Structure formats: C-alpha cells, structure tokens
Amino acid sequence: MTGRPAGRPLVPAYLSTGGVARPSRPHMERLTVLALTGEPLRQGPPQGSPEGLPAAGLALLEALEGGSLAVVEAAALLRLPVSAVRVLAADLEDRRLVLARPPIPPAGRFDPDLLKRVADGLRALKHD
Amino acid sequence: MIELPDLVAGGLAVGTLSALALGGGLLRARRQRARAHAEIAALRTRLDGTVRAFTAEVEHLAAQRVPAAARQVAHRHLDVPGPLQPLTVGTPLGIALENVLLALQSEVLSQRTRVDAAAQAGMRGATREIQAALYRLQDALRVLQQRYDDPELAQTLFRLDHENEQSLRRAQVTAVVCGAWVGLAREESHVVDAVTGGQARLAGYQRVRVHNHLEPGTALVSHAVEPVAIIVAELLDNALRHSSPDTDVVVGLEHVHHGVCVTIDDAGLGMTHDERERAQRLVAGDEPILLTALGDPPRMGLAAIGRLTRQFDLGVDVSSASPYGGVRAVLRVDSHLLSKVDPEERPPAASTPRTTRRPAPERTAPSPTYGTENPVAEPAGHHGSRDADGLPQRRRRSRVAVPEDSAAVRPARRPEEAAAALGALQSGTAAARSGADEPATGQVAGDGTDQTDQTDHAEGGAAR
User: pLDDT tens across B14-32, in order?
Assistant: First the structure.
C-alpha cells in the first residue's frame, strides 16, 4: 500500500454517502465479499456521473475492477470508514452493479459431548 | 453821557456774542452726544445680534453638527449639516468651527479603531481556543467512525462530525476576520480535495454539484489549501443561503491562463447593485475590517474572504450575474499557488468527483463493460495496478463516459491536434501510394520474378 503522510483529511467521511450511514440492505457485514456483476454502466445526464452514482460509489466500482474485495478491504483502499462503504455497496447492489456474498461462517466446532458419546460407544463395542 | 451807553452797548454786545457762542457750543455738544448715543445703541444691538448668532451657531454645532460628524466616521454616506448662517463659512469663526469637527472626527476614528482592535484581539483569543478544541473533537469523532460500524451509531457519528465541521467553520471564519492565522497547516493537496472539503463544512452540502475539469494531480501548495477551502466554503454558503432549497449550486473547476478558476453559480435571487458593490468591496480586502461595521449579527463571510485574498494573493470576483439567474462567484488561484501531486501515489479523496479530462497519453479505449475480466484487453490494467505487496490498487478513473458516446464527451480536439492527425493520414496514404507505384514501375521495367518473391514474402510474414 502506498502510505499517505499522516494529516487531517480534508474531506470528511459523511460526504461520501451524503450523510447516510444506514445501508439499504441489512446483511452487509465487514467480511461480506463484493464483486462486480459485469452490468454495463448507463451514461447519466451530460456532465453527470453514470447512473447518477455518487463519486465514492464510482470509486468503489473502480476498486472492484481489480477483483473481489471484502467490505473492510474496500474501506481501507478508499480510506473510508466501514459504515460508509456498507452504504455504498448496498446502493450498488440495489443497482445490480455489485454482487455481495455473505462471509463463510467459521466451521462449527466439534461438540465434545457427541465425541465423548461416540468414544463411549466404540469402547462399549470393543469390550463386547 | 455818551460813554455809558457805549459801554453798556459794548458790554451787551459782548454778552450777546458770548451767549450766542455758548449757546452754539451747547447745541453742538448736545447734538454730538445724541449722535454718540445713537451710535452706541446701534453698536449694542449689533453686538447683541452677533452674540446671539454666535450662541446659536455653537448650539447648532453641539446639537446637530457634532453628532452628525461623529456618525459620519462610521457611516460615510451621512451628511454633516453646515453652519446656521451660510455667511460664516470662510470667516475665522467658520474655520474655527470646522476645525472643531475635524479634530472630533479624527479622535473618534482613532478611538474606534483602538476599541475595535481590542475587541478583535479578544475574539481572536477566544476563537483560537474554540477552534483547537473542535479539532480535537473532530479527531475523536473520526477515530470513533473508524472503530464502530453499527449503522445507528455511525449515523450519529456522521451527524456529529457534520455539526462539528460547521461549528469549526464559524470559529475559523471569526478568527480569520479578527486577523488570526487560518489555524491549520495542511500538506499539498488536490484542488478538488480543498473544494470538496469546503463543501463538506456547510449545511445543505448535498445541493452542491462539483464538476471537475482539472488535469489529474492539480494541487495547491500547502499554505494555500486551507484558505481556498475557507473561501470556497464561504462562497458556497452565500450561494446556498440565497437560493431556493430545491435548486442546485454548481461548482466548476477549470484551468485558465494563469492558474485555476473555481466558479460557483447559484440559481437564487441575485444581488442588487448596491449589495454587489458592497460585496465586491469586501472581498477585495482593500479596506481595514472593523467588527462594528459588519452589522448585527455580524456578516463575517465576505470579510473573511477579503482578509484571505489579501493575505494569500488569491482573487475573488462576485460582480457578475450567474446564467442561472443568481450570483456567479469566481475564485482565481494563480499558478504560483499551484503544484502537482502524483494522482497514482496520492489519489484525491474517494468522495471527490473524478475529473472529466482523460489522462491523454496511455490508455486508449476503455473496456466495454465493468468487470468482464478480459485479460487480453487490458493486461497491464490488472497486473500493473498491483503494488509490490501484491495488494490490488485502485486505479485512477479514465472513463466517466461509457464507450458508445465516448467521442461526444471527449474534450474537443485542439486545432493543432486535428491538423496533425489529418496531416499524418495524408502523408501516410501518400507514402503508401508511392510505395505501391514504385514496384509497379519496376515490374514494367521487366523484373517480375523479384516482385512476386517480395509479395510472397509479405504474405508469408502476415501468415506467420
């Protein structure tokens, strides 16, 4: 990563979403993986951004051009808080420009009780 | 006998003569006295008149002219009434009275400046503390924003951050009007960052549309960043305040001959002639600023702009009308305040609008769609954009337009470029024609086999 010299950022985070921090879809998590759907962008009004996307939304699309990213990764790349990226990603998902895949849950731990019962059963079989 | 009557007659004659003489003298004296009396009476009435006139003049001075002269120090357009007797003008009395007024005015002016300077110093001290405290609050809020991403909490943090930005702007502007430093040292930053940063400090910033037509990497030298952000914020604030809430305020960033212009157009009511003149005078920053002259509540914005334009050699013009009907404000940043920042190494903030200019040399046609992973079309795009650490890197945007009408959005070619392209085409076709002609004449000369060999080779090369 190229480092930016530490300094007070000029542009506050709320500007990226227009002050909105509640995503339109509740399921976006920190580890949700975002990928482009491959839908083409429709051109907006002249001089405007395509589809009237906010600038930060375009920046997120650009970041995803290099491949899929988790929400936290995209936040780090764009130097935005995770909450803002969630709003942007949910908006892009609503426009069918981005696919969001929920994080893979960690594998369930073995239940020690079950293991104990299996072991007991095996021992009982052996003794028989 | 005769002597006696003679004597008597002589004596009588002398007596009569002297009596006559005496009588005459008496008469004359009485007449003189009467004349003197009359003269004295006339003089006395004149004197009375003069004293009365003088008293009236001084009373007029105290009651009318002195207050008016004192008021005139603050409000130049007020008139000071003249003396009661127009004839006194030019007389020693008149000149003495005028001198009273002049001495009074100069003393009032110096007192006014002194009091105002003291008030400014007090305000400066207070706002500096407030500003520092608000910066600390801003830091704390941003740390919280990074740490917590619960939507409800984030919403609150965003709102608090915005409120804080607005308070910060007020404190900063007040400090600047009172002659303080802008209060924050920044590093070299993109012009669009400074403009968007200024935009973020306002209530109603969502109504601002920024169109960025600058070369990527156009930046401000470090000491100009904060002043430009403040000026843009104040101009935008005026624009937002004086236009209806359902209209947009349009900001354009463009290169001009001597630097960069930030144009701010609103679709509001516009200003009257007097307002415009006053605003232009304030933003020019030529006159010293007095807090008492800013009105109640004090209108600090334009005064702060005036201070900054003077200090940092920036140019602001508010004298023209906007094509949208409101006011057009133009901030000019001359080239000595501009620098370059590598947009790949230090990209502008994610929420700033992309430039409509395309980076000219590399990167010709954009790939037709987003996300069609097409390594043949742009191999350099994916691999080249990865850092040494192998992390993907955000690339600068080259395509605000989609391909089908990219030609329409592409900035118009300069005449020289068009001429060069046409010239190249022409010379190319001419060269091809002459190349085709030469072997043809060679064939006519009789060396046919060689020619066919050549074409065979050419075809083979193409096939291989």
Answer: 888 999 999 999 999 999 9
Upper half-sphere CA count for residue B25 (Cβ side, 13 Å): 6
Lowest mean pLDDT among B133-147, B191-205, B281-295, B376-390: B376-390
Q: Classify the complex by whether its ipTM is higher than 0.90, answering yes or no.
A: no
Q: How many domains, in total, are found in chain B?
A: 2
User: What span, in angstroms and rounded, lies between the C-alpha atoms of B218 and B216?
Assistant: 6
Q: Is residue A91 part of a domain?
A: yes
Whether B349 sits inside 8 A of A66 (CB atoms) is no
Residue A62 lies in a domain: yes
Give B61's DSSP letter: I
Q: How many distinct structural domains can be found in chain A? A: 1
The residue segments making up the domain with residue B303 are 189-365+394-403
In a domain, A7, yes or no: no
A38·B371 Cβ contact <8 A: yes
Q: Is residue B332 helix, strand or coil?
A: strand
Picking from B223, B134, B121, B102, the residue whose alpha carbon sits closest to that of residue B177 is: B121
The C-alpha atoms of residue B129 and residue B144 are separated, in whole angstroms, by 23
Q: Are residues B235 and B344 in the same domain?
A: yes
Instruction: Identify the residue whose tokens are 């190249």.
Output: B424
Out of B352, B386, B404, whose CB is closest to A55? B352
Mutation to test the B interface, candidates A1, A14, A73, most B Cβ within 10 Å:
A14
Tokens of B457: 């080779």
Express each pLDDT in B59-86 by its tens digit: 999 999 999 999 998 888 888 888 888 8
Residue A2 lies in a domain: no
- Chain A positions in Cβ-Cβ contact with residue B206 (cut-off 8 Å): 18-19
Q: Which of A16, A7, A25 is nearest to A74 (CA)?
A: A16
Chain B from 116 to 175: CB within 8 A of any A CB: 135, 138-139, 142, 145-146, 148-152, 154-155, 157-159, 161-162, 165
Hey, what are B287's tokens?
């006159």
B212-221 per-residue burial string, b: 16 or more CB within 10 A, e: under 16: bebebbbbbb
